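Bumping with the actual sequence this time:
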Amino acid sequence: MVTSVEGDMNYCCKVDLKPWHFWNKKGYKSFEVEGNPVEVYWDFRSAKFTSSPEPSSDFYVALVAEEEVVLLVGDYKKKAFKRTKSRPALVEAALFYKKENVFGKKSFATRAKFYDRKKEHEINVESSISGTKEPEMWISIDGIVLVQVKNLQWKFRGNQTVLVDKQPVQVFWDVYDWLFSAPGTGHGLFIFKPGTAEDSDMEGSGHGGGGESDTSTGSRYHSTKSGSWPPEFCLFLYAWKLE
C-alpha cells in the first residue's frame, strides 16, 4: 500500500502467491500517486520457502518512483536494479509493522525479526481453554516460555515485557473472543513490539519519525530519513481458533 504525503489517499497493489503452477510468478504493474507514476516489479520464479508462507530467499519486489527504487524487498537486489533500470534509494526502507493471520486449534506459530534484522525468532502461542481445568495460555519465543497466563477467563487482556536475546520486547494480548464468542467468529490478537513502555511513550510524544500503524494492511515500510528516532518493528498476530 502506498499512502499519499497528506495521508488522505491510499493506493494498493496486491501480489498473491498462489499454490498452483500456472500463475504469474514474474510481473509488473503501474499506477499513479497524486499524478506521479509508480511502478511495481516482482519475480518469484526461483523463490524458496521454509515454514513461513513468505518467501525466504531468491526473489524480489521493487517499488519505483521517479526512476528510483524507493522500496526493495528480497535478496535479488542486483536483478531488481537491472530489470527496473533505476537507481537505488539514498535511504534504505525499514519494516514498520507486519500483520499476520494464523489458524489452529490450540497452537499458533509464526516467525519475526526484532532487533537483529538478520535473525528470525520463532514465536508460539499455546492455549488450554476447553475441559475442566482453568483456562491457561503460554507464549514462547525460541522455545522458551516467556509469558504464562493462568485464570485466563479473568486475564483475557494484558501485557508483559519480556527479554529476547537480553533485549526488551513488549507482548500484548486480547483473547476475549476465544472465551466468550461463538467458535470461529472471533480471533485472539497478539502484538509484539521491541522496546519498553517508556520507549513507546517517547516515540508517541513527538520523538518518532513515522506515523501510527494501521492494522488494515499486511505490512508497512518506513523511511528512516524522516527522523532521528527510527520506528521499531511491530508484529500484529491474529490467531483464529478452529474447531
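The C-alpha cells above came from a reply further down the thread. Residues 137 and 149 are 5 Å apart (CA to CA).
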